[in-house]
Amino acid sequence: PTRIGVLAVQGDVREHVHALECLRVQAITVRRPEELDELDGIVIPGGESTVMDKLVRAFGLQGPLQDRITAGMPAYGSCAGMIMLADRVTDATADQQTLGGMDITVRRNAFGRQVDSFEADLSVPAIRDGVADPLRAVFIRAPWVEDVGSEVEVLASVPSSVQGDAAGKVVMARQGPLLVTSFHPEVTGDLRVHEYFVDLVRGA
Ligand code: GLN
């Protein structure tokens, strides 16, 4: 069976485990470096990237995770998880580190105070029926992707119907086996983003 880990040091782990189990994938919570060995891919959930980073380092997971990602293990980062997979972060705290892997610059808490949390319908051609049936995206103190490298494929942006400077910002992207979203697909019951990631893991 396909085995996908969910990094379980902090954040909304259960929701991702549930989404993966709905797709009949074996979901494994990961807190120790040895637990990475048996994985075909990993999900890094939303939460708080500064705390997640500290715990990843405290649990001795930073190096082993970076090694697996460098070796090509597929990884999907949502929100704080997207920050963790970014090579560069704007508005990071002074001692904040990331795992990196994806050639993107991410701005933390980018959508600002007035729109702390919001929802938007995204057209996502890469997912099943993703144009005819837009994806309801839930953003919670979300980052956006400020800048992408040449190997990065943009999968979704904030629609122009959203007010302010959020419109047009990149909120879903992929670089080879690495996938990131600013938003939280695990809270809506729509499994299409997880399904896309599972397909990516199976194809890797
Ligand atoms: N603002 C959080 C951070 O900087 C991310 C929020 C989330 O994951 N919902 O890590």
From TrEMBL:
Signal sequence range: none
Active site: 79 (nucleophile), 184 (charge relay system), 186 (charge relay system)
CDD domains: GATase1_PB (cd01749)
Pathway: Cofactor biosynthesis; pyridoxal 5'-phosphate biosynthesis
PROSITE patterns xref list: GATASE_TYPE_1, PDXT_SNO_1, PDXT_SNO_2
SUPFAM superfamilies for this protein: Class I glutamine amidotransferase-like
Cross-referenced Pfam families: SNO (PF01174)
Keywords: Glutamine amidotransferase, Hydrolase, Lyase, Pyridoxal phosphate
The protein's name in its UniProt record: Pyridoxal 5'-phosphate synthase subunit PdxT
Source organism of the structure: Arsenicicoccus cauae
Originating gene: pdxT
